[in-house]
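Title: Request for sanity check on Histidine kinase prediction

Description:
We are preparing a figure and want to confirm that the structure record we downloaded matches what your pipeline produces today. Could someone re-run it with the sequence below and paste the raw C-alpha cells into this thread? We only need the C-alpha cell string, no images.
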Amino acid sequence: MPAFLRELLKPLSLAGLLTLGAIALSFTLTESPYGPWRWIAWGAFVLGFIVQGDVPRRVDHALLLVQACIAMVLVWMEIRTGTAPVLTVIVVAMAARRWPRLAVWGLALAMDIAMYLMLLRLDDFKPWLVVSLYGGFQAFAALTTYYAMEAGRTRDALMHVNADLLATRALLADSARDAERLRLSRELHDVAGHKLTAMRLNLRRLAADPALAGHAELALAEQLSAELLGDIRNVVRSMRDDPGMNLETALRALAAPFPRPALAVHIDPQVRIRDTHVAETVLRLAQESLTNAARHADADHVRLHLSQRDDMLCVDIEDDGAAPARLCEGNGIAGMRERVAALQGQLELGRGTRGGLRLSAKLPT
C-alpha cells in the first residue's frame, strides 16, 4: 500500500477528508461571483492535503504555507457561506503534526487576524464572535493532534520495551538451559562416571581371581559396566556439544510486536553463538533496523541473514524501503557502531539492491 494512501486511511486524515467534502457540498448551495475559481482553489487545497507527508520535508513545510494562503483565499471568496473558515482548522491540525507549537500558534493567530479583517467588510457579521469560535476550534484541533501524536509515541515506546523484554527473556531462558545442561554433564562425568570406573576396576580384579574365573555372570557384569560407562561418556559429550544460543526464537520475539515491517530470519546451520554479548549485539542491531525501517524507510519487509566465516559472525540486514541517497547517521546508528566497536567488530551501512538500507556487521565469535 502506498505511503500516502496509508496516511489517508488514518482516523484523523479520514475526518479531514469528510470535512473537505462537507465544505464542497456547502459551496453548491450558494452561488458565487468567482465561478470556477473557488473550485480550483478547493481542489488545490485537497491535493495538498492528500500528498502531505509524501514529499520532502522542506517542500512539505512550504506546501502547508500554500494551503494556509489557499484557505484564506477561499474565506475571502465564500465569506457569506460561513464554511470556508473550517479550512483554517484543518491547516492548524496539519501544522500541529509537523511544526513546533510556537509556530503553530503563530500561524493560527495570523490566519485569525486575516479572517477578522475580511469579516469587517460585512455589516451583518460580528467578526470577533466568528473569529473566537474558529479560534476555539483551531485550539481543539491542535490539542487533539498533539495528544494523538503523544499517544502514538507512547504506544511505540511500550511496543519497543515489550519487544526488548520478550527477546531478553528468550535469551535468558536459552542461557539458563545451557547452564543446566552443562551442570548435568559435569555431574554425570564427575559422579556417575567416576563410580562406574571404580566398579569396572573391581570387576576386572574379581575376574582375575582364579576362584571366580569362568563365571559368566561376572564377565557379563564387567561388559555391561563398560557399555554403561561408554553410554554415559557419549551423553556427556553430546551435552557438552553446545549448539549455541537459539537466536531465531529471540529475534522472532523481538519482531512479534511490530505490525510492520515483517522480519524474515535466515540462520546458516553452522552458526554457533555462545557469547551472550554477541547475541545481545545481534538483537540490538535487528531492533534498530526494524525501528528505522518502520519509522524512516516505510518498509514492509526486513531480511536478516546470519552466517559464519572462520571465527567471524556475519550479520546482514536489509529492508525494502526507500533509503535516502545520503545517509544521515543518528543516535540509533551511532549506538549500533558503539556496540559493534566494543566487541572489536566492523559495521558498514549502504543502500541495498532493493533500494532500502543495508547493514553489514562482522562480530568475533
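Thanks, this matches our download. Strands lie at 262-267, 301-309, 312-319, 346-351, 357-364.
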